[in-house]
Amino acid sequence: MKSIPSFSGIKTILFTLFIGFSFSFYANNHIPTKSYFDHLSEVNKEWSHHKEAAPEGLISFNSDLDRIQLHLNLVIDHLKTNSPSNFNSDQISNRLTLLDKLQDYADNKVFPINKYHSIRTPYFVDHLGTNCAVGQMIYVSGNEDLVAKISKEHNYDYLKDTLTEGVVEWAKEFGFTLDELKWIQPAYPPTQTMDQVLDGTNGKVNKILRHYSGEKLTIAGEFTELDGSPCLNIGFYENNQLSCYGNGLDGKINDILHLIDGIYAFGEFTHSGEVFPIAKFDGTNWNYIGIPNRIGATASVANFGGSGYNYEVAIAHSSIPNHQEIWHFMNNNTWERQAKVNGIINDILASGYGRVHVGNFDSVIVYNSNATIDTSLSVNNVVISKYYEDVWHGISGEISETINIVKEIGGALIFGGTCVGSAWGNDVCISRYFNSVLQPLYLNDHQFLQYSVNTIAYNYGDKFTFGGDFEIDPGIGTYGINLANFNLISNSIEPLADLDQPVNSLIYFGEDLYIGGDFQNNLGSPINYLGKMSSTVGLNENTAEINLNVYPNPFNSIINLEGIEEGAKYSILYIDGRVAKSGTVMNEKINDLDFLPKGSYLLQLESMKGNIVRKIFK
C-alpha cells in the first residue's frame, strides 16, 4: 500500500471537495426527456466545463440511479483518455487503477441510500455500509479504517469547495487534479415534494397571510381565477377549499391585514373614478378608504396598530415625489402622519426592538403630534421607532441594497433583500441584527446576477425558510432555485426547490409550508402559482442511529443523558443559533444550567455515532 497523507489532510480533502452519492427514498423516479448535457448538468455543474464530453441528442431515465451511472461512465471514459501531461508513471498507474475500481462501482449501480433525511443529503457511508464514489476509491486503496473513521465523525456533512492543507498532496499522490475530483461527484436537485394547492390560480400570487383565527389563509395576487372559478385577485383557503372574498377586488394588492372588523387590502384601487390606497371587505362588500389631503395615494405596506391606533400604512402620493409617508389610523377614526422617508418602504414589523420599517431609503423625517417636523435623521434602509418613547433610530452596518422583508427570530432581526455580485454592488442577501451588531448571513457569490430574497417564514427549530429570485449553486451538493432553508446553527443553506420563477410569499400553516409566487413549474412538475410543502423545517432528530434519553425536559439546572458516550461534545443553543453553553458530557450529565432563562433551546451533541439535535425546554 502506498503511503498517504495524514488523516487530517485526507479528511480536509473529503470535507472540502466531496459529497457522496445519495439516492433518496423520496426521489422522483421519472426523469423527463431532455438533452444529455442538461441531464448531466443537473448531476454535476462541472459539466459546464466539459460540454464536449456530453453526447448529442435527447434522453430520458427511469431513475436517478441510471442518470448517476451515465454520469460516472462518461467521466471515467474521459479521465482515462485525458491524463494531465505533468503526471509521472506512478501517478498515471494510480489514476488508472482507481478509475477501474470506480468503473466497477458504477457498473454495480449501488449507491448510498438516503434513509434518514427527507431531502437529498450527502452520505459518505450509508446505513448498509455502501460507500460514496470517493469513499469507494479510498476503501479499495486499502484504507478501510480511514473510511470508517470519516463515516463516524462526519457522515452527513456538506462543506464548501475550499482548498486547505492536504488536498493538493492527496490529488498529486493518486494522479488527479482537483477539478477532476470535483467532476466525479454529483450535485443533486432537491427532492422535497411540492404539491399544487387544489387547482391553484391562473396568475401570480404575491401575498399569503394567516387569519388571526388561525383557521384560514388569505391569498392575494394578480389572478382572475381561483381553483378554476372566477375570482379577482383575492380569496382564501379554508378546510381544503379555495374560495373568493365576494367576487374579489379590482386593483393592485401589495399587502393585506386581518382586523376584527374585516379584511383590509393595501395597494392601488380605483372606485368611482378615484384611486384609493385601502379597501376593506366587511364579509359582503368591498369598501374603499382614503387619507385626508392625500387623494390618489397608493399604499405599499401596512401593519397592525399599537397604543392609540388601529393600523399603520406606508403611502406614496404625487405631492411627495420619490418619498413615502407613514400614517396611523387612530382609535378615534382620524388619521395622523408619523414620518416621511426619502425612498420606499417594503415591510413593517412589530418586534421586540420596536416598529421596524425597511425598504430602500436613506433619510427619515419624523413628525410630532402637531404634524410639524420633529426629527430628521440619515439611515441605511432601516428605521426603528421605539414603543411609547416616540424615538426613531437607524442601524449601522452592511445590508442589502433594498430590504424586502424583515422577521424577528429568536430575539434577532432577520433582513432579506436585493443583492448583486460583489463586482457590481452590494452582495448581502440576508443579514441578522442582534445586540446592535449587523451580521451578513447569505451573500450573492455570482458576479453577473442580481438575486432577491422576497419573503421569510419561520415555524420552529433551528431553521428558517426563505424565498425569492436566486440560485443555490454549490458546484457539488444539492442545488436549487428560489426556495431554501437557512440553518442558524451551521450557517448553511439547504435548497428546497427548483422553481422556474420567483417566490413572493411564504407562510407556515400547521406543519405545512404554503408558497406563492410567479412560478408554474418545480422540477418538471406543474405548480400553478400556489404550492404546498410538508415538514420542510424543524429538527432532524434522526441524524444518528442511537437510543438517547434526555431528561428532565423541561429542565432546571441539570440535564441527564442516557445513551451518549462519556466525553461527547455538547452545545446548548438559543433558537436563533447563538451558543448559550458548550462543553463535554461527564457522568451522563450537563450541569450548572441555572443561569439560562426559561424558554426553548437546542441541544446539539457530537457523538461517535453521528451528530444529534434535540429540542429542550426550561
UniProtKB/TrEMBL annotation:
Residues 192-339 form the Rax2-like C-terminal domain. Residues 550-616 form the Secretion system C-terminal sorting domain. It holds the Pfam family Por_Secre_tail. Keywords: Signal. InterPro entries: Rax2-like_C, Secre_tail. This is T9SS type A sorting domain-containing protein.
